Amino acid sequence: MLLTRRIVYDAPNKPGPPLRFVTHSHRVQELAQRLGWFPAARYTNLRDVKRFDGCLGFLDIDWRNYCFRRHLEAARLTRPLITVARDIVDRRRIYETLDEAEELSNFARFIVIVPKDKRLQHDLEHEIPSKFLLGFSVPTRYGGTEIPPEAFKRPVHLLGGRPEVQRRFARVLKVFSMDCNRFTLDAAFGDYFDGTIFRPHPTGGYERCLKDSLRNIDALWSGYTRPVLEG
Length: 231
Hints:
Elements: H1 2-10, E1 19-23, H2 26-33, E2 38-42, E3 58-60, H3 68-78, E4 82-84, H4 94-104, E5 110-113, H5 124-127, E6 133-137, E7 156-159, H6 163-169, E8 175-179, H7 182-187, E9 191-193, E10 198-200, H8 206-220
Parallel strand pairs: 1-2, 1-8, 2-3, 3-4, 4-5, 5-6, 6-7, 7-8
Antiparallel strand pairs: 9-10
């Protein structure tokens, strides 16, 4: 446990691609770890990371039905490298999110603040303390960040979305870390990410789809170096 935790917590200090996280079954996370990804979980379901001795790379939230007390307790139990605070969907509630982020910072090394109210786009650096990462929710059919990526001046965590879309946003954003689960959904139907699009795997098989998708996602980020953070 201590060795694994040291590896996770030393990662930001070493050069390399963005830190990659996947929130899924233990089987998926074990495959991903072999390629340098880190285990992740929602605070509502820590079952699949118990076999990693409670060492967590990324603690995600249930943003539709958010409960701060449950999130805080999960952070206390898992001590993640990164966790994400409540989305700021209304600028008038920004200080509620920042207060919660301060509490979460007692148990996580980095806290992600996700601004979604478009009225914040010109004030991100002024309103959100520099010690926090910014979160950019990659647009999907379920929603996403409507603030233009050019407004994000500091390092960001990419939240969800398709792998090729995530990489495209990195042309503008300084990507420190990212979580990506999309490839796990396609693998269940025999599809994999080929580096450009999702398509049927030529050989097939759930695990083969997962492995090849992970390798191709990593290849997308070849040559990209994440920004250095303090802390």
